[in-house]
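=== RUN LOG ===
request id: a7f3
mode: sequence -> structure
chains: 1
length: 369
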Amino acid sequence: MEDFDYYEILEVAKTASADEIKKAYRKMAMKYHPDKNQGDTEAENMFKKVNEAYQVLSDEAKRSNYDRYGKAGLGGGSQGAGFGGFEDFSDIFDSFFGGGQRASRREPRENLDVAAEVHIEFLEAIFGCKKEIKYRYDKQCTVCDGTGSKTGKRESCPACHGKGQIYQKQGFMTFSQTCHVCRGAGSIIKDKCQKCSGIGKEQVDEKFSIDIPEGIDDGNRLRVAGKGSVGKSGNRGDLYVIVRVKEDRVFVRHDDDIYVEVPVFFTLAALGGKITIPTIRGEREIEIKSGVKDKEHIVIKNEGVSNVHSGARGNMIVQVKITYPKKMNQEQEELLKKLHESFSHNHGNEPHHNVFEGVFEKVKSWFKN
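=== RESULT ===
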């Protein structure tokens, strides 16, 4: 038998009352409980000592013998003591969550918040709008007053004995799970209410108008306080409106920036000039620089979306798409040929010949070797 003092283990004086010893045991048992100290062998050993000490000190006869003769006066009966006055391990587990009150149980928290969706057009999201929302929320059944029972009464669950949790012991470990019979309620219904089928709630349809702020984006949520479900105590949750924005056939939005692809004819790309393009706020003239490249971006500052929080505007990004004629008449072909020949004449040869100059000779040398 390991030599240790029971009073020291429980951190109480030898004159401590039975109530003080019991309170000290609860405190120490929770401190060293294996479920809170998984893998800690020292805590597991202390937990055994705490239980052994309480088994002795909570029994008047054993405590008297221990005070007189020490552990020798116990005749080895304290070794391997159980769980010190609790009906079972689950009572210790319950005490973690009930402020020290035995076999206490928390009621499952009601989720009173409700979600609904609203679908809006692309430009409605950018400039804001007003929309009507239709949704459903729950309130307590008016027939059974939210009990779900035809008689208005519920009975203690026979599976979990009203605790809402079922506990399983494996050595010094305790595992808990929500009761599969009452689903954590701790009580069951025998005669279900016909109106709500035992659920205790009924659904209510509601609609109202909501202001969609300027700059809202797809997937953003709007919180409407006090429009959710009604709880047992009469309090009401919130409504969360999820905004779904339709895509536009011309514009693409990324955060607060707007992208638009603008076709630029190849002659304009070569010569440069001005073109009129659409923006989210109307038409606008922009300058195309000579020699602009395909997929090149032209940034127009502060022509994007106003940020829904700060109000600062993003940019508009114009992506150039160089286009070529699909068909040409004879006159157009002749003009292009003349243009092509003029460039070849000015550069001494066609441009691609300058790029590949010397390459053919190198290729020939490979085969010679």
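=== NOTES ===
The first helix runs from residue 6 to 10.
The radius of gyration is 40 Å.
=== END ===
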